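C-alpha cells as discussed.
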C-alpha cells in the first residue's frame, strides 16, 4: 500500500511528497517515451512516403494498341463543367431498335476508337456504343497543369459527368438502358461511376484494379528487393496500409487532385450485375487484385471471368469469340434480346490500326 507524506502551511496550502511524486514522474517518463517513439515512427513513415511517392506517380510502360477510326461512326463532342471539350464517337449497332446503350471507358493513352474493337460483339448483338476520350488523351482537349496517369482522379469523374449529360441531351439515347464497360484505368472509372449513378444498370470491367489494392501489391513486391522476408513479416499490415494512405494523400497534395478510391463505394453495386474480366497471365493487374475487389463487393451478382493465357487488356485478343459471347450474355441480364429483332447488314469486324 502506497504511503504519502505532506507538509501543510498557513492558509491550507499543502505539498504532497513521497511515493505519489515518484509515480507521477514515472507516468511522465512513460508518456514522454511514447511521444518520442511516435515522433520517430512518423519521421520514418514520412521518409518512406517520400521514397514511395515517386514510384507511385511514375507511369508504367504500357504497350497501348492503336485502333483505326470507324468511318461509319458519328463523331461527337461535349464540354465538361470546367470548360474542356471532349471528343468521341457514337457507334450504331445492327438493330434498328437498340437493346441498350453501352458507354465505353478507354484505357490510359487509349482512344475512343477502341470502343468498336472491344464492343464489336455488342454492336453485332444490337447495342449502340458511345465513348469519349478523357481529357489529355486522344482527341480531347488537355487541361493545363494536369498530366493524366494510371491513377484516375476527380478530373476523369468530371469527364464522365459530361458524358452522362450528353446522353441525357440526346433524345435517341436518353431512354435506352445504360450499361458501362471499361478497360484497365477505364474500368475503375466505370465502377466508380456506376456506384454513384443509379441509372447505370450493369457494369463490366476488363483488367480492373483499385488504387489502394494495386499500390499495396507493388509495394510488397518492391520491398522484397530491400528487406528480407523475415523482416518484412515483422511489419504489421495496418502500419503498411497507413503509410500507403499517406503516400496517396501526399501525392494528391503534390498534384492538386483527388484520387478515385472505389472500395467504399462498392457496396452500392451489390444490387446490380458486375462482370470482372481477368487475364491469368496479367503481370500488371494479377488475378488476386480482381478477386479482392469481388470479395470486397460481396455480391451474388458479381462474376469473375478468368481468361487463360491473357495478359493485361488482352483477353479479347486471346479468345475473341468467347469474349464477345461472354460480354453479350452478361449485358443480356438487363438488356434482353427481343424475340424479333430487325437488323441491318452485320458489321464488318473491326481491324487494328497498322503499327
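Sequence:
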Amino acid at each position: 500500500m502506497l504511503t504519502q507524506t505532506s507538509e501543510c502551511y498557513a492558509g491550507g496550502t499543502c505539498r504532497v511528497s513521497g511515493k505519489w511524486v515518484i509515480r507521477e514522474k514515472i507516468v511522465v517518463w512513460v508518456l514522454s517515451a511514447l511521444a518520442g517513439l511516435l515522433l520517430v515512427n512518423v519521421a520514418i513513415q514520412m521518409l518512406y512516403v517520400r521514397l514511395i511517392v515517386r514510384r507511385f506517380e511514375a507511369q508504367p510502360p504500357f504497350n497501348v494498341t492503336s485502333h483505326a477510326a470507324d468511318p461509319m461512326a458519328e463523331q461527337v463532342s461535349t464540354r465538361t463543367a470546367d470548360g474542356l471539350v471532349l471528343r468521341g464517337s457514337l457507334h450504331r449497332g445492327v438493330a434498328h431498335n437498340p437493346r441498350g446503350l453501352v458507354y465505353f471507358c478507354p484505357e490510359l493513352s487509349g482512344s475512343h476508337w477502341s470502343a468498336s474493337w472491344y464492343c464489336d460483339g455488342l454492336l453485332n448483338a444490337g447495342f449502340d456504343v458511345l465513348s469519349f476520350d478523357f481529357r489529355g488523351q486522344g482527341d480531347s482537349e488537355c487541361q493545363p497543369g494536369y498530366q493524366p496517369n494510371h491513377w484516375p482522379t476527380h478530373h476523369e469523374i468530371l469527364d464522365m459527368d459530361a458524358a452522362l449529360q450528353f446522353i441525357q441531351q440526346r433524345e435517341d439515347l436518353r431512354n435506352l438502358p445504360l450499361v458501362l464497360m471499361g478497360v484497365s484505368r477505364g474500368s475503375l472509372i466505370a465502377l466508380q461511376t456506376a456506384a454513384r449513378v443509379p441509372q447505370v444498370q450493369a457494369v463490366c470491367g476488363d483488367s480492373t484494379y483499385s488504387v489502394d489494392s494495386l499500390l499495396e501489391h507493388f509495394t510488397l513486391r518492391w520491398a522484397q528487393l530491400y528487406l528480407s522476408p523475415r523482416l518484412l513479416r515483422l511489419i504489421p499490415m495496418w502500419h503498411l496500409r497507413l503509410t500507403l494512405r499517406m503516400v496517396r494523400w501526399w501525392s494528391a497534395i503534390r498534384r492538386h487532385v483527388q484520387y478515385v478510391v472505389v472500395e467504399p463505394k462498392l457496396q452500392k453495386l451489390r444490387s446490380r450485375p458486375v462482370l470482372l474480366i481477368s487475364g491469368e497471365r496479367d503481370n500488371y493487374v494479377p488475378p488476386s487484385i480482381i478477386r479482392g475487389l469481388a470479395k470486397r463487393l460481396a455480391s451474388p451478382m458479381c462474376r469473375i471471368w478468368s481468361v487463360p493465357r491473357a495478359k493485361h487488356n488482352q483477353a479479347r485478343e486471346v479468345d475473341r469469340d468467347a469474349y464477345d459471347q461472354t460480354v453479350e450474355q452478361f449485358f443480356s441480364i438487363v438488356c434482353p434480346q427481343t424475340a424479333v429483332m430487325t437488323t441491318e447488314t452485320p458489321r464488318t469486324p473491326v481491324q487494328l490500326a497498322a503499327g
